[in-house]
Design a protein that fits this description.
The structure is a single chain. By secondary structure, the chain is an alpha/beta fold. It has 3 domains: 215 residues, NAD(P)-binding Rossmann-like Domain (Rossmann fold, 3-Layer(aba) Sandwich); 72 residues, N-(1-d-carboxylethyl)-l-norvaline Dehydrogenase, domain 2, CATH 1.10.1040; 136 residues, Rossmann fold (3-Layer(aba) Sandwich), CATH 3.40.50.720. Helices cover 39% and strands 12% of the residues. An 8-stranded mixed beta sheet has the order 3-2-1-4-5-6-7-8, sandwiched between helices. It has a 5-stranded parallel beta sheet with strand order 10-9-11-12-13, with helices on one face. Strand 1, helix 2 and strand 2 form a beta-alpha-beta unit. Helix 8 packs across helix 10.
């Protein structure tokens, strides 16, 4: 034990440790770059060979990070990328950033973590540190990963080390980056926690130790449940106030003038991203195991999941007032990404909006400057290309639905040339001229 601990201390100090990140997506790629910038030798692993090939060519596939984001790293002798799991044994530290989606019945899909755990176990050797970053239910690291790693005879805390450190990435955010977002770290045991803490401190400005992996796992869920519940609150307020003829956006702005006791959240067409729509259900699933319902959290999920249907209903009503039916109507959805100014379409409500409108017989296109064409996803395969916004193209649609408020959209042009606009983001608040063709949803 003392030998592994002292060895880790020297490897961190002289940056000789090899840090491997598994899963080179929105979380893993920036993290790998952060460790590379900290002076470590780095190994990126992903099952998607296309990503590996792009990295070998020095190209970045996450456009919101900029074209030059990976160039320095990829041109360095301290960097390698692979899809060969046999190379995991080369790493001293392995950080797991794989997806944790939901199943058909809103149950946790742990297949990616399970598969990755098995792959790591095949090359696990004394002295290695493994850290899970994927959002999951409390107990995952200890109950799911630890038994697999110890099955071969090595003991955690003495022969190898295991910890949890939740990712906190927010794609497209400008005021925080991977290195400046405070990092929680909780070990399966004190030795694991200490090594993980010391390693992250080399790449992250502020690292916050917690007493266990379970605390770190639960903290991540609380962060996103907090947002889910408050977004559900304003979404429900939107539905109620709309029925009363009151502008929910003006109400939120008015309430925000209070300097204490209130934090503004904003409604939308539904939740998107990999965390907020998913993480609450990881806790509700685990809560059933210990015999306690999570009524408040589940209610928030129901409200948020109902928002695409609310938008469709408002769209139907708006068309009806013009004497038009949805069936046969040409419609354009603005924004496929789940949030503005990024190309991240994970769990985006725009997909459900398009699906629901098409089921009603509409002919639906989309426009998104950050997503030129769709790709096959877990639940959707639209096989569509983005439509260029011109006065002629806008005028060719009977209805335009604003799902994502990208800064690149020219809202005045959209207002001037669209026949009917359904605005789910208050994107049209500052346009000039007539507004009788704008419907809030």
């Amino acid at each position: 034990m003392a030998d592994h601990l002292s060895t880790w201390g020297s490897r961190i100090a002289d940056r000789s440790a090899v840090v491997c990140v598994i899963g080179l997506g929105y979380v893993g790629l920036p993290l790998l770059r952060a460790f590379h910038q900290a002076g470590f030798r780095t190994l990126g692993f992903d099952v998607d060979q296309a990503k590996i090939d792009l990295l070998h060519a020095g190209k970045n596939y996450l456009k919101h990070l900029g074209e030059d984001f990976v160039k320095a790293m990829c041109n360095s002798s301290r960097f390698a990328a692979t899809a060969d799991a046999r190379r995991l044994g080369e790493a001293d530290a392995i950080i797991v950033c794989v997806p944790t989606p939901l199943g058909r019945h809103l149950e946790p899909d742990m297949s990616y973590i399970e598969q990755t755990t098995q792959e790591i176990s095949q090359t696990l050797r004394p002295g290695q540190l493994i850290v899970l970053e994927s959002s999951t239910y409390p107990g995952t690291t200890r109950e799911l990963m630890l038994p697999v790693f110890e099955k071969g005879g090595l003991k955690c805390g003495t022969d190898f080390f295991l910890a949890f450190s939740p990712e906190r990435e927010d794609p497209g955010r400008k005021d925080f980056a991977t290195q400046t977002i405070p990092k929680l770290v909780g070990g399966i045991d004190p030795n694991s926690g200490k090594i993980a803490l010391d390693l992250y401190r080399c790449a992250i400005q502020q690292v916050v130790p917690v007493s266990s992996a379970e605390v770190a796992e639960a903290a991540k869920l609380l962060e996103n449940i907090y947002r889910s519940v408050n977004i559900a609150l304003v979404n429900e307020m939107k539905v109620v106030l709309t029925a009363m003829g009151i502008d929910v956006w003006e109400v939120i702005a008015a309430a925000s003038t209070k300097p204490f006791g209130f934090q503004p959240f904003y409604p939308g067409p539904g939740l998107g991203g990999h965390c907020i729509p998913i993480d609450p259900y990881y806790l509700t699933w685990k809560a059933r195991e210990v015999g306690y319902p999570t009524r408040f959290i589940e209610l928030a999920g129901e409200v948020n999941r109902a928002m695409p249907e609310f938008v469709v209903e408002r769209t139907i009503m708006a068309l009806n007032k013009l004497g038009k039916a949805v069936r046969g109507t040409r419609m354009l959805v603005l924004g496929l990404a789940y949030k503005p100014d990024v190309d991240d379409v994970r769990e985006s409500p725009s997909f459900e909006l398009i699906e629901k409108l098409e089921e009603l017989g509409a002919h639906v296109d989309y426009s998104d400057p950050h997503v030129p064409q769709t790709h096959k996803m877990r639940h959707y395969d639209l096989q569509m290309r983005s439509v260029e916004l011109t006065p002629t193209s806008l005028a060719s649609y009977e209805c335009v639905v604003i799902a994502t408020h990208h800064a690149a959209f020219d809202w005045q042009k959209i207002a001037d040339h669209s026949k009917l606009i359904v605005d789910t983001r208050n994107a049209m608040k500052n346009v000039k001229g007539r507004r009788d063709h704008i419907v809030m949803a």
